[in-house]
Structures are given as C-alpha cells and as structure tokens.
C-alpha cells in the first residue's frame, strides 16, 4: 500500500487530471478548434531562436565528457558566475557564483529550499491567492501551512493580516511576484512594508524568518513595470527563479536559487541546499540546459504576443461586465466569478467549452483564473462564448 500522505495527493491530484481529461473529451465531441482551454499555464510560444543556436553551438564546441558528465551538485561554476553577474548588472547587487545553485526548474528549487530549511511543525506562510504547490510541498515536508487572506481588490499581500498571523513557528514566507494566478506585480511599497514587518517579528520572536521569493514570471512584465529585487529589501531572502516561462523551456527543467551572503546562516544553507539536491534525487540541474541558459541571459520570449492576448481578453471581458484584475505581469487574467460559487461558474463555462480554473484552487474562492498563454484564435473563439455565458448568468440571477 502507498503511504498515507501519498494517498491524499493521489485523491487531490485526480481533480486536476479530471479537468485535463475533460478538455480532451470536449475536443473529441466539439472539435479541438471550438474548445477554449485556458486551464494550464503551459507557454505556447516557442523559445527564442537563440536557444536552439546555443544548443547547437554547445554540442559542437564543448568537450562531451565534461558537458554530459557528473558535476558539482550546485552546477557548472562558469554558468553560476555568469548568472550572478547578470543579476548584478540588472539589479545592482553583488552576488558571485557561490550564491547560486542551479536547480531543476523553480519546482526543484522550492523543494531544495523546503528540504534545507524545514523541520516538522515549522510553518510556511503565503498570501492568497497562491500557487497550489506551496501547500503540497509544505505537506510533503510535514510543515504547517498558513494562508493570509487576500486583499481585495488590489491582490497585493494583505500586510495587516500578515503581521497578525506571523508566529514563532513561521520559518518560511512564500512570495510570488508577478503572481500566479492574478498577474499582479507587488509594488515596492508592499515589499518594503513586508520586509519591515518581518524584521520586527524576527526581533520579537528571536527567530529567523526566510522570505522565499518565487519568481518564474519576473521577465514577463508589460510596459515599464518594475519588479523590485527582493534581496535588496530583506536580508533573509532566498530567490527561486526559472527559465520555464521567460525562455519557454518548462519541459527542460532548468532554474536556479540565489542564496545571499546576507541571509542568516547562509554558509550552512548553501552547504545544506547542495546536499538537498542530492537527497531529493535531482543530483544536479540538466547540464546541457545550464550551458544553454548561460548563453541566453538577455533573451526572452516575445512578450508582445502575450500582451496582445492580455489586451484582447481584458478589454473583451470587461466590456461584457466581467470584473477583471488588470494584469501587469505573467500570462494570467484573474476574473471575479459573476456568481458567488466559483466552482459553479467554472462548471457553467464548461457548457460553452471554456475551461478555467476556480479560484478555490488558489485559496481564493469567488474568482477564476484564465491562462492566456494560448493562440490568439482561442481568444477570438472564446469571447462570444463568454458573452453568452454572461447573458445566461444575468438571466438566471435577475
Ligand atoms: N512557481 C510558480 C508560481 C509557478 O506558476 C510555477 C509553474 O507554473 C512554478 C513555480 C514551477 O515552475 P518550474 O517549471 O520552473 O518548475
């Protein structure tokens, strides 16, 4: 028999899989071109051309035994140095290769951080709405999980509630900006306010509280929006980044951690994180991809494409009476359910072959997430369906 913990994961995992299966069934009945699947955050843009060129160049030029062999668990030293220097150039920081650990995507990085920091009973706290895996990873490491209720309508972290909820067992605070599922970018004022509360609470409790900044959408921002670099506001910050979205490489599983010298016990954390990569069985991040991203540090996918989708959906839906949060980053639109029950709203949308994820999945009932990393045609097909859905809701609720 499988473990009790895994039994629960299997039971919960099947809900998401059911949605995926439903999409496939719908495609068979109505034709794939009539199904508007906004459920998954799987980038639909190809990686920049530079990625393919870099891979070919690396395969042509690098010594294959070095390239494909085992290495330090933290990753290639030259790659880590180049990433550190690139962050320093962009954000005026002073990291070196010693602060960087290459990871198997952001998901791998988060697991390494959780393995490194958490004892059973420690608390992980985050802000609603949040990326559901934070809960799963916390359970997996036998940590308590606490969610600060959303601040509506800004969806910036709710700082007064955060301050009230922090306690002596809080070890990790998870931050995700640009945010999945809202697309909101947390302001400098929010980050500075959060840091100020954390410094005060650390002092009060005599503990170290680590702010884990999960940033796979950092490069996906629109216009001249700036995403503050969190290590500059709070010393005990660990950054988790990945190339899954910025270079459209989610299947290649490549990312990195930044563990600053300024973080309490940074030497021990680096040593432990190194071992955690081994214990979790990742051993090291994929070697070809490490070399590849180092050659593409200034590249990113065509953000204009996502921007066009963003404008088309936001303008289309708001003109029909849907209340949407204007997203400054990522590729998600957060829409208020026009009826109280978001599960019911998502169910009604399915009748029009529109697939959404209910806000309840993100710890924030009453809303739904639309992933707009889709073909523009999907949005064109979806808008009249959304209109019909709104009319049905209006008729029912009048
Ligand atoms: N964190 C957030 C907020 C995400 O949305 C995702 C993926 O969608 C991840 C982490 C995991 O990213 P990766 O593919 O780099 O593991």
Task: Report on this structure.
It contains 13 helices and 13 strands. It has 398 residues and is of the alpha/beta class. It folds into 2 domains: 142 residues, Aspartate Aminotransferase, domain 1 (Alpha-Beta Complex); 229 residues, Aspartate Aminotransferase, domain 2 (3-Layer(aba) Sandwich), CATH 3.40.640.10. The strands form 3 sheets. It has a 7-stranded mixed beta sheet with strand order 2-8-7-6-5-3-4, with helices on both faces. The chain has a 4-stranded antiparallel beta sheet with strand order 9-10-13-12, with helices on one face. Strands 1-11 form a two-stranded parallel ribbon. Helix 8 links the parallel strand 5 and strand 6. Bound molecules: pyridoxal-5'-phosphate (PLP). The site of pyridoxal-5'-phosphate (PLP) has 13 residues, from helix 5.
How much of the residues is beta strand, in percent?
5-15%
The structural class is alpha/beta
| CATH level-4 homologous superfamily of the largest domain | Type I PLP-dependent aspartate aminotransferase-like (Major domain)
The helix/strand order is HEHHHEHEHEHEHEEEHHHEEHEEEH
Number of strands: 13
C-alpha termini separation = 52 Å
What strand line-up does the widest sheet have?
Answer: 2-8-7-6-5-3-4
The CATH architecture assignment of the largest domain turns out to be: 3-Layer(aba) Sandwich
Summed up, the domain count is: 2
Detail the poorly predicted runs. Answer: none
Biggest sheet statistics: 7 strands, mixed
Bound molecules: pyridoxal-5'-phosphate
The helix content, as a percent range, equals 40-55%
The total of helices stands at: 13
Mean pLDDT: 96
């Amino acid at each position: 028999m499988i473990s009790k913990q895994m039994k629960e994961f299997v039971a919960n995992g099947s809900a998401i899989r059911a949605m995926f299966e439903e999409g496939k069934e719908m495609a068979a009945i109505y034709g794939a071109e009539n199904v508007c699947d906004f459920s998954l955050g799987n980038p639909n843009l190809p990686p920049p051309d530079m990625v393919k060129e870099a891979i070919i160049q690396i395969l042509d030029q690098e010594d294959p035994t070095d390239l494909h062999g085992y290495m330090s668990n933290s990753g290639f030293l030259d790659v880590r140095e180049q990433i550190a220097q690139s962050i320093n150039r962009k954000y005026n920081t002073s990291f070196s290769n010693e602060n960087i650990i290459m990871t198997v995507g952001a998901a791998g990085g988060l697991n390494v951080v959780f393995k490194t920091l958490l004892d059973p009973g420690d608390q992980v706290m985050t802000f609603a709405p949040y990326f559901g895996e934070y809960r799963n990873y916390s359970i997996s490491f036998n940590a308590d999980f606490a969610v600060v209720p959303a601040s509506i309508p800004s969806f910036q972290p709710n700082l007064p509630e955060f301050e009230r909820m922090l306690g002596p067992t809080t070890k990790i605070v998870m931050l995700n900006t640009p945010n999945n599922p809202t697309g909101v970018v947390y302001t400098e004022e929010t980050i500075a306010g959060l840091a100020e509360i954390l410094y005060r609470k650390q002092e009060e409790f005599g503990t170290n509280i680590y702010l884990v900044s999960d940033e796979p959408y950092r490069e996906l921002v629109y216009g001249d929006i700036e995403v503050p670099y969190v290590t500059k506001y709070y010393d005990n910050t660990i950054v988790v980044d990945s190339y899954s979205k910025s270079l459209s490489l989610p299947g290649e599983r490549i990312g990195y951690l930044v563990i600053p010298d300024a973080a309490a016990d940074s030497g021990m954390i680096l040593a432990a994180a190194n071992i955690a990569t081994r214990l979790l069985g990742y051993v090291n991040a994929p070697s070809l991809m490490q070399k590849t991203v180092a050659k593409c540090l200034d590249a990113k996918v065509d953000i204009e494409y996502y921007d066009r989708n963003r404008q088309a959906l936001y303008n289309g839906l708001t003109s029909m009476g849907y209340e949407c949060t204007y997203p400054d980053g990522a590729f998600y639109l957060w829409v208020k359910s026009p009826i109280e029950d978001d599960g019911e709203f998502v169910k009604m949308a399915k009748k029009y072959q529109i697939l959404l994820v209910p806000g309840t999945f993100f710890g924030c009932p009453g809303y739904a997430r639309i992933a707009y990393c889709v073909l523009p045609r999907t949005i064109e097909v979806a808008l009249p369906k959304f209109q019909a859905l709104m009319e049905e809701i209006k008729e029912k609720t009048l």
